[in-house]
Amino acid sequence: MMVAPRSPGLAVPDAFPPSVAAEEQRMRLAWAKRPQKDPRYSWSNAGHLLNRQERERAALRALARHDFLPLASKSILEVGCGTGGWLRDFVRWGAQPTDITGIDLLPDRVSEAQRLCPPGVRLECGSATQLPWAAEEFDLVLQATTLTAVLDRPVRRQIAGEMRRVLKPGGLILWYDFRFDNPWNRDVQGIGKQEIRELFPGYKVELRRVTLAPPVARWVAARSRLAAAMLASFPFLLTHYLGVLLPPAV
Question: How far apart are CA 127 and CA 105, in angstroms?
């Protein structure tokens, strides 16, 4: 599998190792099976809206605890940026578009992100296993439901290593992902705290449970937003971890 085009001036290897190529091909096929426009993730869906708003509050609290707000002076990378939803959130939270970068494996998702994101946001189509940036380039590195889509454990470790490599000393990794398997989707595999610590050795892990189980949120919020918000206070009903990973002090 050839590497997708990169920015001018960046060295590009001819091919990925076979294990990476196989896993990325599996991911492409998994995404190809998904509907282009899924009504479950529409802003008109009360459950989706509830969870997105709760996720935003939790992310802002996590960043504020470590004096990462405002974001105006921070360089930001999202690994597995998809169509750029988080990238646009960062702009709303005060980041300069020219300080925001995203990379994704799938060209159609990158094209959609280019259409939706404001001018200045940098977008790359390529592999997160070989990030085309120098070491210690970003203040904030985000992964959101990317690593759970990688089923091959060595490939997960390689991506996590690249995230660690490009993070500046004193920076933060922002994390949002499934904490256990999704019984309705065999193309994802949850990541618990122990594995997160193994992926980011020496890092301080500060995570909290968030996101009311989406099938529950969709059914309940359509009938009572108050009832859905009350259910979101029960930790066993929350499917994701959200928080920050802090690198070891230099």
Answer: 6
Instruction: Decide which of 98 and 41 is more confident.
Output: 98
Give the predicted TM-score (pTM) of the model: 0.90
User: What is the residue type of 243?
Assistant: G
Q: What is the DSSP letter of 37?
A: S
Which residues are CB-neighbours of 228 under 8 A, at least 6 positions away?
A: 46, 47, 50, 212, 216, 217, 220, 221
Helix, strand, coil percentages (3-state) for the chain, rounded to 5, are 40, 20, 40
pLDDT digits (tens, 9 = 90+) for 53-79: 999 999 999 999 999 999 999 999 999
Third-level CATH fold of 18-35+70-212+240-246: Rossmann fold (3.40.50)
Only one residue has tokens 């196989």, namely: 22
CA distances from 96 to 111, 118, 138, 204 (A): 20, 10, 14, 28
Handedness of CA 46, 56, 82, 110 (dihedral sign): positive
Which residue in 28, 141, 133 sits closest to 79, CA to CA? Answer: 141
Name the residue ranges covered by the structural domains of the chain.
18-35+70-212+240-246
